[in-house]
Amino acid sequence: MRKLHGSRNIFDIEVAGAHVTKRNIDVVERCKVVFIATKPAVVQSVLQEISQHVTADHLIVSVAAGIKISSLEKDLLHQPRVIRMMPNTACSVQKGATVFSLGMWCKQGDALLLQKLLTPCGFVAEVPESCIDVHTGMSGSGVAYGLVFAEALADGAVKMGMTRDLANKIAAQTLIGAGMMLLESGQHVGLLKDNVVSPGGTTSHGLHQLEKGCFRATVINAVEAATMRSQFLSNQ
Amino acid sequence: MRKLHGSRNIFDIEVAGAHVTKRNIDVVERCKVVFIATKPAVVQSVLQEISQHVTADHLIVSVAAGIKISSLEKDLLHQPRVIRMMPNTACSVQKGATVFSLGMWCKQGDALLLQKLLTPCGFVAEVPESCIDVHTGMSGSGVAYGLVFAEALADGAVKMGMTRDLANKIAAQTLIGAGMMLLESGQHVGLLKDNVVSPGGTTSHGLHQLEKGCFRATVINAVEAATMRSQFLSNQ
């Protein structure tokens, strides 16, 4: 069931089989698991509107960036079961990465229930709340770094004579391949990298350029800056 | 069917249902599609050994890095049907990227046959032979760049407080997610990136660090250097 503010997209959502309402309280009255997926600025007013209707049977899951569990719990009454989660945009292709943290009133089984609901969207893990900002900086924003990386790989290939369309596809597949090798092999990333590097071969020449350009430090800088921005926004 | 030089791994391969021989000529006599997957330095002697047995019914597919189609054709007799291909190491997890070029004696249907055989390994595309070196520099070596990128993402997250094991998994998933969004959306990479960038948000802070560190130029440098090395090795 989903509450919508305007009428845009209502038809598509109804066709997909969901119930749609314009009243927040309807959602709480009919559902046991309620996702709060409004803009962060609106969360407090939504919670105050529904708080009288939230019982111990409800699990309230917030997707709002930067709003802490303690703040969510404060805006609800009756020891609410609250989960704060942070997905990334790759959930749209079922290859997302989502982390979540449980509030103090959560029951045994709440983590498992959320895991089960979210697994079709990709990777899911429970983390301490302090890791949510880190996840935002590495993976929420990191999808954009990955896209820029793929674009630059393709730019290099186009410079060397490959067509753009083919270069884009191969660059995208190269990211997927590297990620899958890391996830599936269970081997250390350095060992996997070494396996691609023949003596005097092409990869050693490419890696030397990456090191010359402080590639690793640049990526670490990006994760650090984005994490710090997320921490700053959370504390506002 | 597979020819093996030593006895290492023979048992595993036989258990998997393959026939094993120690004679190259056996392979050519029993198979119509023959993959030449020796070290490049050994290719010429292998081709000379089998050349009398290669007929118009055979399709000879070389995986050897740097050995040109004209050279493969020269070492065989009777207008041989030759394909030169270049996979990458992510074929091991069925997310590889492979390109291939047809020799001058190939028949209609040879490209389709190879596509069909290789598709379980990942992405496959026919290219002009000049693109094989570019593919090597971007995707053959590029898997290593992707692994270094994932490692640096995880390094950043570990610096900011996430455990290594979780950071590795999320970094890998972030690469996969970015690659899948690019492959599946059909949208321009710049538009996909823009969709992740909220005004004043975390991603804009991360991207600024990437631009400060000449991230794109560094990746382009790597592809260029590795492609040039591949071109150099091909011309030796």
TrEMBL record, chains A, B:
One of its GO terms (molecular function) is pyrroline-5-carboxylate reductase activity. Residues 129-231 form the Pyrroline-5-carboxylate reductase dimerisation domain. Its EC number is 1.5.1.2. It is an enzyme of class 1 (oxidoreductase). InterPro entries: 6-PGluconate_DH-like_C_sf, NAD(P)-bd_dom_sf, P5C_Rdtase_cat_N, P5CR_dimer, Pyrroline-COOH_reductase. Pfam families: F420_oxidored, P5CR_dimer. NADP(+) binds at residues 37-40. Residues 17-66 form the Pyrroline-5-carboxylate reductase catalytic N-terminal domain. Transmembrane segments: none annotated. GO terms for biological process: L-proline biosynthetic process. Keywords: Amino-acid biosynthesis, NADP, Oxidoreductase, Proline biosynthesis. It catalyses: L-proline + NAD(+) = (S)-1-pyrroline-5-carboxylate + NADH + 2 H(+); L-proline + NADP(+) = (S)-1-pyrroline-5-carboxylate + NADPH + 2 H(+). Pathway: Amino-acid biosynthesis; L-proline biosynthesis; L-proline from L-glutamate 5-semialdehyde: step 1/1. NADPH binds at residue 24. HAMAP family: P5C_reductase. Belongs to the pyrroline-5-carboxylate reductase family. PANTHER family: PYRROLINE-5-CARBOXYLATE REDUCTASE, PYRROLINE-5-CARBOXYLATE REDUCTASE 3. Homodecamer; composed of 5 homodimers. Oxidoreductase that catalyzes the last step in proline biosynthesis, which corresponds to the reduction of pyrroline-5-carboxylate (P5C) to L-proline using NAD(P)H. Proline is synthesized from either glutamate or ornithine; both are converted to P5C, and then to proline via pyrroline-5-carboxylate reductases (PYCRs). PYCR3 is exclusively linked to the biosynthesis of proline from ornithine. This is Pyrroline-5-carboxylate reductase 3. It comes from Eptatretus burgeri.
